[in-house]
Every structure is written in C-alpha cells, then in structure tokens.
Design brief:
With 92 residues, this protein is mainly alpha-helical. It is built from three helices and no strands.
Length: 92
C-alpha cells in the first residue's frame, strides 16, 4: 500500500512546494477563491431563468403562443439587463 499524502503543503529540502501561478503567490493549494457573483448578476440570471420556465410551461400540453412570446420577451429583457450591468465583467 502506498503512503497517503499528508494534509497541508509539503515542501522539499529547498522549501519549494511545487506551486505554480496564483497558488504560489497566494500560498493556497486549491487555486482561485470562491466567487458567487454580485446580487444584480443573480437578479439578471433569475429573470432569464423565469422567462425560460414560463416559455416551457406555455408549450405544455398544447402551445399557448401568446404566453410563449411573452416569455421570450422576458428572456430578452433579462438579457438586455444583464448586458447593461456588465454581468460578464467579473470573470477571471
């Protein structure tokens, strides 16, 4: 049976931990910090999701086209809102 890795960061004789990039700068071994987005980004995403759900419901059991196109409008409004608040500017 092989040896199990110990918890924490293991260094060699020279003190090198083998970390690269941001891991070496931050000292964290798991990479980037968690990022859950801004509240306005969540609002935009929820508006778009609601539009998709309403659009799906509009097609079952037989199509209600007025409701489907209303839902499509909700998705467009949510997308325009997302673009206006720069929802993708927070990515790494």
């Amino acid at each position: 049976m092989s040896e199990q890795a110990a918890s924490g960061t293991m260094a060699d004789a020279t003190g090198n931990t083998g970390a690269h990039g941001l891991d070496a700068l931050t000292g964290e071994s798991y990479g980037h910090e968690e990022f859950h987005g801004r509240p306005v980004s969540w609002v935009a995403a929820i508006i778009i999701i609601v539009g998709f759900i309403v659009g799906g419901i509009a097609l079952v059991p037989h199509p209600h086209w007025w409701l489907f196109w209303t839902a499509a409008g909700i998705v467009v409004i949510g997308t325009l809102y997302a673009a206006s608040i720069h929802i993708f500017d927070d990515w790494y």
